[in-house]
Amino acid sequence: MIKPRRIGHTTFETKDLDRQIAYWTEVVGLVLAEREKNRAFLASKTGLLVVQLEKADRAHCNRLSFEVAPNSDFGDLAKSLSADGITSELRNDSIPGMGQVLTFKDNKGTAIDLFKEWSYLGSHHQVSGVGPLKLGHVAFHCPDVKVVADFYAKVMGFKVSDWIEDWFVFMRCGPDHHTVNFVQGKTTRMHHIAFELKDWAHVLTACDYLGAQDIPIIWGPGRHGPGHNIFTYHRNPDDQIIELFTELDKMMDESLGYFDPRPWHRDKPQKPKVWVAMPRDIWGPPPTPDYLRQRD
Ligand SMILES: [Fe+2]
Question: Residue 260 gets which letter from DSSP?
């Protein structure tokens, strides 16, 4: 079993590299750490690599990276993957700050890069726009959510934090309530990518900034049920949904089996469960049609 400790970065293919660089730096507030002809690498203000862009003929999220424990042996991990019928290879893609990676594909076709050697891409960057603290989670549509959830549990070592009925699962690989989530959909594609902000005041500032840029907030602000994060969603120029959130539930001690108590929890203690009753969200408006519409 792989057991990633945290998500590293997400790679997006895009038709318009310059437009996406402008969005990620000027609106989200990332730092352009390195630019090549057909690739760009963007870091958070703390210097964490969080987004990689690649020029292509479509807008698509094609890979995720995860950090494994520093004493991990890539040979052992490759053997473990092989025992599950998965082919992997060692690669060095010259990703800034990152050493060798062990690469394979998950069972919905997303490339996964495991890394254990990395360095900050600068520090204390001054940024414009929102300026998130870190990449929080990535959600995908997939035709058989149970099969993908089983892969992430059995091969990747993720734990299930919550289900919404049988069509939306939230999975964790560390204290955060979810690092990946999967929702039932007709095709396999990214549902949204989420960045953590410092606090509610930071979310408010982000909403004001989006408003000043004439970027509609398509859902929120509100406080979700599963994960209990304060959320807002908007779309980027490639029509992908970007979430800005804070106060996500954390399971500080796996052996206790409940999320760190918070006053907005309805369950006491708040344990992983299947959400069936409505309303799920603690407060906030319903999603707009622009959030609910399908991209393709
Ligand atoms: Fe989310």
Answer: P
Ligand 1 center from residue 243 Cα (angstroms): 6
In whole angstroms, what is the distance from residue 243 CA to residue 233 CA?
Answer: 4
Q: How far is the CA of 170 from the centre of ligand 1 (A)?
A: 9
CA of 139 to the centre of ligand 1 (A): 7
Q: How far is the CA of 181 from the centre of ligand 1 (A)?
A: 8
Task: State the distance from the centre of ligand 1 to the C-alpha of 246, rounded, in angstroms.
Answer: 10
- What CA–CA distance (Å, rounded) separates 253 from 251? 6
Q: What's the gap in Å between 103 CA and the centre of ligand 1?
A: 25
pLDDT tens, residue by residue, 157-169 = 999 999 999 999 9
Q: What is the pLDDT of residues 94-118, one digit of tens each?
A: 899 999 999 999 999 999 999 999 9
Kindly tell me the burial class for residue 203, based on how many C-beta atoms sit within 10 Å of its own C-beta (0-12, 13-18, 19 or more): buried
User: What pTM, to 2 d.p., does this model score?
Assistant: 0.97
What are 64's strand-pairing partners? 10, 112
For residue 284, the CA-to-ligand 1 centroid distance in Å is: 15
pLDDT tens-digit series, residues 174-222: 999 999 999 999 999 999 999 999 999 999 999 999 999 999 999 999 9
Pairwise CA distance, residues 176 & 173, whole Å: 8
